[in-house]
Each structure stands twice: as C-alpha cells, then as structure tokens.
Amino acid sequence: MEPAIMFSSRTRPVTVFEKFFTDEVYDLIIYQTNLYAEQRKDEGWTQLDKKELKAFVGIFIIMGYNILPSIDLYWSSDPGFRVDEIAETMTVKRFKKILRNLHVNDNTQIPDKTSENYDKLYKIRPLLDLITQACQKNAKDSSSQSIDESMILFKGRSFMKQYMPLKPIKRGYKVWCRCDSKTGYLYEFYIYTGKSKTGTEEGLGSKVVKMLTEKLINKALEEYHIIITFDNFFCDYTLMQYLYENGIYATGTVRRHRKHLPVLVKTNQKLAKGQYKWRVKGNVSFLVWQDTKEVLLLSNAFHPKVGKTTVLRTQKDGTKQEINCPLAIKEYTKRMGGVDHFDQIKSTYSVGRRSRRWWVRIFFFLLDTSITNAYLLYCQNKNATKLSNLEFRVSVARGLISGFSSRKRRSGSLVNYICRKKIASENRQKAVHVVAEEVRFTNVGDHMPVESPSYKRCRMCSTKEKDKRSKVICEKCKVPLCIAPCFTAFHRKG
C-alpha cells in the first residue's frame, strides 16, 4: 500500500486523521445535529460548532483508550475515575446532550419503505459515502489485497443484525471489506443489509467480490497486476474465470460442493501429508493438498505445476519438520490476513460504546476506520516520527481538543460528584453534593483550608433561599466551605 499523499516529517497525526474526517464530514454532522435538536425542540440547546464537535470526537477517542464502565465516571470527583482531560473540556451534561442529538441525515426526508429510493442505511448514508471516498482517495491500491467479512458489535434490535457463531463478535452488522494484504489498510467496504428478496440468497459471495473489485478492473488492465485473495465463502470457478477475464488475479479456498469442480473432489483417495493433486480448466487451476486436513484451492494466478516450496509443521515431540507445499497455497496464506490485521488494530482502542440507536454503532465503526486508516497511512511515511497505535490516538485526541473548553469556569473546585445525599433541615430537605467517603473522611487532619481566588457557594449550608458564599475551600476535597461551622461538620461522620 502506497500513500496517495506524502506527508512531511512535521505532519501531525491529527492532520492525517482529518484527511478522512474532513471538513465536509464535520459540516455534515454540525448541520444535521443542530437541525435534529431544532426539530425535537430540545430545551437549553446551544448551537454546535466545529471546535466543539472536534473536542467531542476527541473525547470519544480518549474514552477508547481510557475505558470506564459509565460515561458519568469520567467527570467523577473520585480521582480514581476522573479524567481531567475530558472533564475540563466540557460538562457531562453538554456531552450527553450532543450525543443525544447526534445525527448525519434528516429524519423528515426518509423515503417510504415501498419506494424505489428506500435505503436501509439512510440514517448513516451521507457519512458512509464520505468515509468510503476518503479511504479510496488517500492511498493507492496495492498489488496484493484480501477480501473478507468483518463484524460491528450490536446486540440491540435491528433488522440488519447478523449472527455469526464462529466469529469473535457473534452478533452485529456484517461488513464486506477489501484491505491491503500487508498493512491492513481498508480501501473499500459495504455494510450487508440483509436479503433483498425472500427465499435463499444464491451467489452472495461471488456478488460481493465483483462489487468490491469493480473499481480495480481498469487499474488491473492498464497499470499493474493485482492479486486478490478470499476464503471459501466467496470462491467458485465462475468467479475465478470472470476475474481473470477482467485482468485480476485471484486465489481462494473453495468448498467441496461448489459447481464446476473436477471429479477429483468426489474421490475419497487419502493423500499422505504434504502430497497434493491438481487439475486445470481454462485459466483456473484446482489444488487439493493434504495438511493436517485437506485443503481445496482455486487460483488463476499460480499454476500448480510451476513453483514448489515447503512449510514447517510442528511434530508431537515439538520438533519442526518440512513438508511439501504448492506455491499457490503458501502465497494464499501469506496474503489472506489483511482484513484480520485491520480488525486487530481497530479493535485495540475502539471508541465504540453501547447505544440503543442502531446506526450509532456504525458511526463509531466509521470513526474507528478513519483513525485506523490514518494510523496505517502515517506509518507508511518514512519521514514521520514513529508512533505506536496508542501514541497516535493520544496525539489525535489532543490535537482535536486543542485546548478547547465550553465550561464557563475551569476551576479544580468545580467538580461533578458521583452521588447526592439528602440532609434534613428544619422544615425541608436539601440536596448536598457529597465527596467520596474514602476522600472525605480519611486522614481528616490532611484536609486544610486554603484561600480561593473568588467567593463560591458553600457546599454545606448555601441554599436557593439563603445564598452563603466563602473564599475558603478544602485543599483535598476541592469544595468551598464556610470556615465555621461547615468546614468541621463536612468532615465529621454522622
């Protein structure tokens, strides 16, 4: 995989990320989110702008590598949970309000289900198209690519949800991916929306490969040779012949019951380990090779008669032994892992969080895809500073936030608390913010009063009816308190 755009050694990771999450993407989200908030007449909504949206995305990236069980905990007063980089950027109330109103398409314009223009992915379609275009635009197609399926985790209710018992992610949305075999860079992808017609869906795998390789046909014929690898879900003889006629070389394992396979498949001849047999029809070769199990393979790129090699296999006593292997099978193994490599990098610090809205999970997938592709693109630049996946994400998050804060007062004493406690007063009950007991009542002698630069409402005795303010705060609890009697009462149990 080669970058379509070269970067200098001073190029920041956030700049590479914004080659995928472009200004057009930000403008789309800002317009549709503000529109949706207006449509639902959200009280207290203030218009979302570009700086705030970038900070919002940056917060999600931080949450990906700093995982907590609840969103509220990132704003907690407990130092074991609180993440200042998030809490100082915006309030939890504002963050949740943006998340609640987040949209990328107009709900009022959804086509009727009976219409020819009906799109099952309507709610996410504009963003889906922009990210797909960016993935193809920012890197040149390599000569070796693989096609496979990926999964987007979703356990809620959706007509597009699939069940894949053999996959690490068993329930969710299925995504057809075309990736670079070596780096895992994602060039093109399609989200499977289910059967278009009733009954059995025949030839799905073949249709997917043709759809994902359509843009490669002219490049393969005019520029350079491209080899595509895929597994036995997609592979059959007719597909291999079609790809060869369109200038695309391909290799794939094949299922025994596929049509147009040689009679050799039906015989029960047991081969010794390392032995193989082959047949050729037209421009497609068929191989059956005996490893621990039989391996069936079709290829229009490698002739089984040309190129023999060996592979190492571990024996029962732990020693390594070389066994014969056709070149086609060794090359297939070498080139097949592109999508798995992409999934591995993407899932390490994934931004995905639970959501009842089915399309939000896809939004997180698109954000993760943008970060992963940007990282892979950044790594291809020999002049760039070497960064790990984690370091790259940290740099992108901080570049997006870039010192932004929507808080009116950025003070250490302005802390959101995990819980509220009801304390009885004469004729009323009053909610008092409570610091975690492990902080509030431990080593009370360490809690010293210090002067604050301004007067703030006492967290113990101030009410709406009677506003009491103090310039004294507890150095450890970070709450304003009257020096007497509130300071002592606040740190005394009972």
From TrEMBL:
This is (apollo) hypothetical protein. It comes from the Eukaryota. Pfam families: DDE_Tnp_1_7, zf-Tnp_2. Residues 13-375 form the PiggyBac transposable element-derived protein domain. Residues 452-491 form the PiggyBac transposable element-derived protein 4 C-terminal zinc-finger domain. Coiled coil: none annotated. It comes from Parnassius apollo.
